[in-house]
## 1
Amino acid sequence: EGFLKTVEARNEDINAFIEINTDEAIRRAEEIDSRIKRGEKTGRLAGLVIGVKSNINVQDFTVSAASKTLENYRGSYDATVIKRMKQEDAVIIGMTNMDEFAAGSSTETSFFGPTDNPAAPGRIPGGSSGGSAAAVAAEMCDIALGSDTGGSIRNPASHCGVMGFKPTYGLVSRQGLLDLAMSLDQIGPLAADVSGIKLALEVISGHDPADPTTIDGAADLEADLKLDEMKFGVVKEFFEVTDDSIDRIIQDKLGVIADEGAEIVELEFSHIDLCLPTYYLINYVEFFSATRKYDGRKYGHRIEDVCGPEVLRRIHMGSYISQKELSGRYYKRALQARSLIRREIQRILRDVDVILGPTVPKLPHSLGEELEPMEMYAYDVLTVIANLAGIPAASMMAGTVKGVPVGLQLQAKPGDDARILAAMREIA
Ligand code: GLN
């Protein structure tokens, strides 16, 4: 009831949730409460209130991906992550706002209007999981789920001053997620603290027979490491593309971490220029293919007839690049560049536990300010690497510039999600 009151008081201004199911939330909460009172065993998420990004299937909620294309699509089943959360007695209160089909970094392209940033009112919350980050920042829920294809969990976590975690590719099932680019997408949690992030990951991770790209067995998320046992890498090229004001906040934070006994070494990453072109080429092609099912027959609207300009750009570009005579020139080369990027980041990760640096290279712009596509894409330069390489990455607040939150990004080897969690716990 407390969370619902906050939603009622603040959501009209913030627009973090685009759908709330008050009756169902109260019914679930009461049912769990009465089980607690009877002394029955309850799940690990009992009493926790969850918001879900609108591109993840939840039974009887609208799974619109914030697009007019799917405005009438009601979830007819629960995604694996949702099933697992419900089994542990989570209370799902609603669906959060996002960029249309998760294709953006600002949550301004939603068919349902933009979301405001609760930590820096009047600015974008970041994206594409901007509603999820804003819902956590405004204390409208305990934990929110997001999806991250090129930064969409970490970017809004950074701008809204909360924590966000993109797991190793395959740690969490994508079954029931409307894909943006399936070789890059991962579902992950946003929360105010590390214990919320870890708990959510424990529940949603692990093998899923319905998603053949998931890991075998359960995820190991325990690492009992202290700061003075950890070695962090700092990549100088990441700072060269970052605004000075953000650079300073991150450097200050690194100073504090070093003072507490961690070892910090400098690393070089030579492919920073390749990251955005490689990411967007792959994104366009995979997204184009994912959108062919929205042809108007099953879901009501044909996507090209109703979508916004960014989604249309990706469909056109993806279609163009996919043509046989062009795919060698663009798509195949992007796949080669992806291998280079993956090898290079894995090489520099060999010598350290975690790479630390800025999450987003610039501060969030004001709502309503119009950016060119390339300026928008520039937000993603530091986050796409983890998706291209399939490695785990997270963002937590490092400090603020004139009151605007700035995120510290942590990246580790594939499967080393536990080490990032340990580092977050020790740094927080
Ligand atoms: N901003 C990036 C894009 O527009 C990332 C989106 C995401 O991670 N879903 O593709």
## 2
Amino acid sequence: MKDFVKEVLVSEENIEKRVRELGIQITEDYKGKDLMLVGILKGAAIFMADLARSIDIPVTMDFMAVSSYGNTTQSSGVVRIVKDLDTSIEGKDILIVEDIIDTGLTLGYLTDNLTKRGARSVRICTLLDKPERRKVNVPVDYRGFIIPDEFVVGYGIDYAEKYRNLPYISSLKEEVYS
Ligand code: 5GP
Ligand code: MG
Ligand code: MG
């Protein structure tokens, strides 16, 4: 796999440490509340698995899938729910768990959508944030790392469905795209 990696932007150790910190913070903030983690497939699956285990209160978990980038590196701006939640979120405190916030279109749409379903609160936890690319203003409540405007893969995040199993966040060599 190292043959495809250009540069490691966030190491395995740094991810592990930051996820633990986020878990401690979320545990404090949600004590006594009915917290439901909503992971956005597929990119947030690995982050969700680690984050959930770093939270020390009972939580429920569900997943949604939305269409965003497809197999290209360009945002379409179109948000479509491909897989919806299995359960009602009325009265629940929702924490959306996402891999990357880029333009903000996806999370802007999802926050609105889940709020309209009668959730008691809707907050956002994203592993990565690319603030340079923001088009809509979305409040990010929990953030792992700020990264530059570069296409990244690893720790759940793909290029054409590959590289999700890299244990760190990295950029890819040019030849991967050609
Ligand atoms: P937004 O709606 O904020 O523009 O898009 C966010 C989504 O686009 C992320 O959740 C992620 O799925 C995808 N995305 C944004 N930047 C990258 C990137 O560098 N690499 C990959 N693989 N996906 C990205
Ligand atoms: Mg995503
Ligand atoms: Mg993708």
